[in-house]
Amino acid sequence: MKSYRKELWFSTDERVELINITPDVEKAVRESGIKEGLCLVNAMHITASVFINDDEKGLHEDYKEWLEKLAPHDPSMYRHNLTGEDNGDAHLKRQIMGREVVIAITDGKLDFGPWEQVFYGEFDGRRNKRVLIKIIGE
Amino acid sequence: MKSYRKELWFSTDERVELINITPDVEKAVRESGIKEGLCLVNAMHITASVFINDDEKGLHEDYKEWLEKLAPHDPSMYRHNLTGEDNGDAHLKRQIMGREVVIAITDGKLDFGPWEQVFYGEFDGRRNKRVLIKIIGE
Amino acid sequence: MKSYRKELWFSTDERVELINITPDVEKAVRESGIKEGLCLVNAMHITASVFINDDEKGLHEDYKEWLEKLAPHDPSMYRHNLTGEDNGDAHLKRQIMGREVVIAITDGKLDFGPWEQVFYGEFDGRRNKRVLIKIIGE
User: Fold this and answer.
1) What is the pTM assigned to this prediction?
2) pLDDT per residue over C15-65, tens digit each?
3) Is the ipTM of this complex over 0.95?
4) DSSP class of residue A14?
5) B96 interfaces chain A, CB cutoff of 8 Å
6) Which residue from A18, A104, B35, C29 lies 20 to 30 Å from A63 (Cα-Cα)?
């Protein structure tokens, strides 16, 4: 069994951003030399997500608006913010969108359906944060 | 390390359907010959889910009603539908229910609790869509 | 390839509780002797979650309040409860928080960001329920 590890770093301009990281994940798979296995991609921070969906700008605006409705930013709404933070909402948004994805690797490639793309979902940005890629297989 | 790959195909009669695929996943595990490992089961389409819960009709109606409340179908609500689609809601519903499950394989079987069953969750059906099963182990 | 399996048992005092299980998962990783691989941690019951977030009391109260808003306990709201259950809400809450996490193991340790902690999320407690840890790697 082989394994491969890589970190991706992000510092977004906006508090909330959705970034297509598919090329970075594909690159890591090539670097790993693994042909058959599983690829874990996870946010290393608890106010961010990694998820798979469509790379369509309108949909991404829909996601942002929907998440804001389900878990509004308003810092006065969350006990967590009594610690001095203002990102209570980001911890909730991340649970809807998920921490991680696990992707099959087949024949040295991400084994994806026609529209699947991997995204980093940032809900409390404007500082350095990381994504972990861990690949195991042969 | 061994690996095994299989696709399941679906074309539902209704736009929204929840289908028990546990027997198909169990069959794939037997076909793989893998005794100890991990089994990834994921929707290959971005308006569908794979999730684990109870096979109880009332609960499934509850899920459908709840998801419709959290992300109503009404096509006029979503920017994504300006592309000509009418499935913006399905991209949101899928995020609640999740893209994938990872299941332990122990002694050649899905290592499940007493009520765990695997479901395909279709939120924009009536066309051919796929689920991927990828198993690695020994 | 090596594999390791362990169960954790819980019987909470309250219907809803969030319990930090990071030390238990770390212990299982040490017991496994696996240095590089993947660690699956999943609820074996369908009204409970395993998730990764922050160990901060205020945030946990925020989660409970938010989940109660998204899926209120009121047993009269759910068809599932016509079966004699009163836990319809717990099946919904668990979908928001997720069934499982997959964690990278690097150099014999959980490969975590600075604040990542693993939690058992109980939404229908006061009885014996289990979490499964399955580790594969080398």
Assistant:
1) 0.99
2) 999 999 999 999 999 999 999 999 999 999 999 999 999 999 999 999 999
3) yes
4) S
5) yes
6) A104
Write phi, then psi, for A39 (nearest 5 degrees). -120, 115
Shortest distance, CA B132 to any CA of chain A (angstroms)? 8
Residue of C115, C136, C138 lying closest to A46 (CB–CB): C115
Q: Hey, is the C-beta of C9 within 8 angstroms of any chain B C-beta?
A: no
DSSP secondary structure letters along A105-132: EETTEE---TT-EEEEEESS-SS-EEEE
Sign of the torsion formed by the C-alpha atoms of B60, B65, B66 and B67: positive
B31 touches chain C (CB under 8 A): no
Q: Is C113 exposed, middle or buried (0-12, 13-18, 19+ CB in 10 A)?
A: middle
